[in-house]
Write a structure and sequence with these properties.
Strand content: 15-25%
Structural class: alpha/beta
Largest sheet: 6 strands, mixed
Strand order of the largest sheet: 3-2-5-6-7-8
Number of strands: 10
Oligomer: single chain
Helix content: 25-40%
Shape: globular
Length: 210
Amino acid sequence: MQAYSPLLSLPREVLDRIIDFYLTFNHEDFEDTLRPHLVYMGDTAYSRPLPSLMLASKDLYRELSPIVHRQAILRVQVSGLNDRRISFAVHGKLRFDRLEKLWLLMAKEHANWNSWLSFFGEVTDRTKNLKALVIDWAPRPVGSVGSVGWTGRVNAKKEDEFFKMIGTLKELRLIQIYGDISPEWISRLEGLAPHVVYYRNRWWREPGMD
C-alpha cells in the first residue's frame, strides 16, 4: 500500500464527486436471503470486500474509511406471497453500532409489514448512532388506507410501530424520504428528526443509485 495518492491533490468538490460515484452500490452488491437474522445478525459480522481504491494508499484509506464504514443499505424485496428476501449492501464489515447513515429500500409493490417490520425493529435497536435515514418507498399508496375496516386498522397499527421504531433513533438528524408519500406520513416524520426532506421521485435506480 502506497503512502500517498495523487487523487488527493484534486480540488475537494471534484474528489467528493469521484468518491461518491466510486462508492455507488449496485444490484450485485446485495446478497438476498430468507434468513436475515442468521446472515446479518450472527456472531460473525457480515462482510463484503473493501473497495479496491481504499486499499491503494494509506491516505485514501483514511479518506474513505469514515464513509465506507458508516453507511449501508437495507433492501426489502418480496416475490410472491411467501418469498421474503431481505438484504444489505455494505462495504467491508456490517457493524450496526458504527452506522451513521442507513438507506431503507422498499423495493416491492405492497407494504407486507409482517415480512420485514420486526427485522427493521432489530436493526433500529442496534443502530443507536444513526444520524441519517433515507427511505425509498415503492409500495403504493402510502398513508391513505386509514383505519376503516380490519385491513385498515392493521395497516394503521403497523404504521404506528414503524414510526415508533424510527423514534427510538435519538441521534437521528436527517430523514430523506422518496416516493408517493401522504402528507400525514411527512408530518409524522417531521416530528422524528430536526430535518426532513421529501422527494416525490424514487431514489433507487438500477444498476446504481442517484
